[in-house]
Specification:
Blueprint: E1 11-22, E2 25-36, E3 40-44, H1 51-58, E4 66-71, E5 74-75, H2 80-86, E6 87-89, H3 102-113, H4 119-128, H5 144-155, E7 162-166, H6 174-189, E8 193-198, H7 201-207, E9 210-215, E10 218-223, H8 225-231, E11 236-243, H9 249-253, E12 258-264, E13 267-272, H10 275-288, E14 292-300, H11 303-311, H12 327-339
Parallel strand pairs: 3-8, 3-9, 6-7, 7-8
Antiparallel strand pairs: 1-2, 1-4, 4-5, 9-10, 11-13, 11-14, 12-13
Bound molecules: adenosine-5'-diphosphate and magnesium ion.
């Protein structure tokens, strides 16, 4: 399955009633999910949502307090070794290996797993992650993005059925992030299933076939990106700044298509299920009151609107300002900052 939205394959991971407590904190609070073979499955949520804990329980690295997990038909509690053989986990390239080249590291891992470590196979794995020309470069001379991709290659050495990536693009610049997205697609197109976590909504929307949205240890929505966006009654957000007066909240709510209004001084934002009608209505209302609209913008609904609708909160922590994927998100971030 290489196309988004095509019929799902067979279930490859089944998680039911998963719970993990740390003292009084329930970090994972009754998670159910099914991952199908051949998909890129994303677990999306803010920091602390329980993504890593969920992932590590599926990998068999942490013990759940309750619930069942099967991976490729193996129970993660009683058949841990079979699970380990079936999965690939992205490893952090550690200082220990810094003096080894990319090719030497892959050979070392292949030998550890007892799988084919021939130069041809090493080249194939390096090619998968776009590092063939770096085969003889020392790991510590690679960029952050290249090191991440090398660590994915190491996770692929045993030809895993499922590959797990925990926040693979955190800390990468936009160009490196895009290269990593391509690597993930290549891994999926070669037949592996990919499960990744992210706190970047745009990344989940662009990269994942299906997404489980997590918040406070629970899966609050699970669908394709399109399905998630269609599940909320909002198609678009229209925003503008008003000059020479302001329109009243009540008046804005009467504009056709308007689902929600937020007013902040001279700044207005309308959420609409019919952006064209809403835009026309807004322009008419402004003209009636001789109000000038500046910075008029319309944005299609995104996963951000899904999260906002489901939780009443917006998503990214402010401290992430330097770590956003691209200009669009930066702009949204500053809009939110200004509105807050
Ligand atoms: N080993 C641990 N001991 C105590 N609390 C933990 C531990 N690991 C995670 N937590 C807490 O569990 C919650 C979920 O953490 P985590 O799964 O790392 O979330 P995420 O990966 O979504 O950021 C957080 O509140 C975190 O502080
Ligand atoms: Mg995490």
């Amino acid at each position: 399955m290489s196309e988004r939205g095509s019929a799902p394959g067979t279930p490859i991971i089944e998680v039911r009633g998963l719970i993990k407590r740390y003292g009084t904190l329930t970090a994972v609070d009754g998670v159910d999910l099914t991952v199908y073979s051949g998909e890129v499955f994303g677990i999306l949520g803010p920091n602390g949502a329980g993504k890593t804990t969920t992932l590590e329980m599926i990998e068999g690295l942490r013990q759940p307090d309750a619930g069942t997990i099967t991976v490729a038909g193996y129970d993660t509690r009683s058949q841990t070794e079979d699970v380990r053989r079936a999965i690939g986990v992205q490893l952090q390239t550690t200082a220990l290996f810094d003096y080894l080249s990319a090719a030497e590291l892959i050979k070392l891992f292949a030998d550890l797993y007892g799988v084919d470590s021939s130069p041809a196979r090493i080249d194939h794995l390096l090619g998968m992650v776009g590092l063939r020309e770096k085969r003889d470069a020392a790991a510590n001379q690679l960029s952050g993005g290249q090191q991440q991709r090398l660590s994915i290659a190491l996770g692929l050495v045993n030809d895993p059925i499922v590959v797990f990536l925990d926040e693979p693009t955190t800390g990468l610049d936009p160009a490196a992030r895009r290269e990593l997205w391509q690597t993930v697609r290549d891994v999926r197109n070669q037949g592996s299933t990919v499960v990744l976590t992210t706190h970047y909504m745009e990344e989940a929307e662009i990269l994942c076939d299906r997404i489980a949205v997590m918040d406070h240890g629970r899966v609050i929505a699970l669908d394709t990106p399109v399905g998630l966006i269609e599940s909320i009654d909002v198609e678009a957000t229209i925003s503008a700044r008003m000059r020479n007066g302001t329109l009243a909240d009540r008046e804005l709510r009467e504009i056709p298509g308007t689902q929600d209004v937020s007013l902040n001084g001279d700044q207005l934002e309308l959420r609409s299920d019919n952006p064209q009608l809403t835009l026309i209505g807004l322009l008419e209302a402004a003209r009636t009151h001789s109000i000038e609209l500046t910075e008029l913008r319309s944005n299609q609904a995104s996963l951000e609107d899904v999260f906002l609708t489901l939780t009443g909160r917006s998503f990214e922590p402010l401290s992430d300002a330097t770590d956003l994927p691209d200009e669009t998100e930066k702009r949204r971030f500053w809009q939110r900052r200004k509105a807050a």
